[in-house]
Each structure stands twice: as structure tokens, then as C-alpha cells.
Amino acid sequence: MTRVIVSTLLLSSLLSPSCDSSHATWTYEGAISPTLSMMDRNSDGMVDRSEYEAHSYYAPAFQSVDSNDNGELDVNELEQLVLSTDPVAFDGCSTLKPITITLNPNVFHPGSFSTRVLKELFTFMLYEVHARNPEYPLPSEEEIQAAANTRTLDSPASSAVLESLLKAYDEVSLSPPSHLLAH
Ligand SMILES: [Ca+2]
Ligand SMILES: [Ca+2]
Which one in 99, 157, 160, 162 has a CA-CA gap of 20 to 30 Å to 171? Predict the structure, then answer.
């Protein structure tokens, strides 16, 4: 094993323009070498089937990784394994699952900064009321968007939405955001 590490370091040094090992060129072999060293329990510089299977978990079967079919894995075969395999597989976890979170389209929307801030404020307030009382009638998506499009809290459309939301907060016994109480 020591021989492999040394030869890898030598290789890295040879590849480095400065020939200074502290600035050795990054190589796949160099990156994989510590992994091979860790798996190589009998320190013969190769990873045999039992050494591989002690760590492989859900990784591909040994024979599919042993591309030259000599019963042992060298650093290049391990490199190809890493490059072709989802890293999660090495952690003993199941393979990656599809994302199941559905993004709320109300949270991400185009428009100017002021429009977005107003829409987020109104939408936040709407969700707070809705969480407390799903039956309570609230401004529609269109009303909120129209108010946000005015880009100001003092516009008639925004004032109407805000007023109805503040009334809703009061009626479902919620405290509204304190900076809105002056309005
Ligand atoms: Ca070995
Ligand atoms: Ca092999």
C-alpha cells in the first residue's frame, strides 16, 4: 500500500509543472488513493472482493467494477466506479429519490421588488389567517396581485386588501405584523 501512495505522490509530482509536491497537480488517482488505502485491509495495494464488499453497501457488484476481471480492484477501477456511481450509494442509503416537494407558485413570482414585497406580505398574512381559520373569506389571488402591482401600501387597491386582512386577523384573534398597525 505504501508503494501505491508513494508512486501516486511521485506521479503527482511529476505532473506538477513546479515539481513541488506541495503544489502537486490534482489527479483522480491522488484523490482515490486514500479510499483505496482505507479499503485495502491487507495492504497489498489492491482491493479484493471481500475488502470491497465490506464497504460497498449498495454500490455496484464487485464483478461489474473489476473491469479487467483479475479479481482485484486497482485505483483506476475504483476511479471509474466513483465517476459512474451516485455518491449516496456509498453511504448505505437508498439511491436518490425524486424531489417530492411541490413549490408553491405563490411564493415565486416575477415583478419589481416592491411588487414582490407587497405580494409576499399580503400572501403571508393571508396564509396566517387561513391557517387559523380555513373557512374565513379572504382576498383573492387576483385582488392581492392587483394590489401588489400598485407597488405601494397606500394605494386604494393595497389599502383595501390590507384593511380586509387586518379585519380578518382581528376576527380570528391573531396579532397582525406590528409595523402594519399604524396603517
Ligand atoms: Ca487488498
Ligand atoms: Ca481489476
Answer: 157
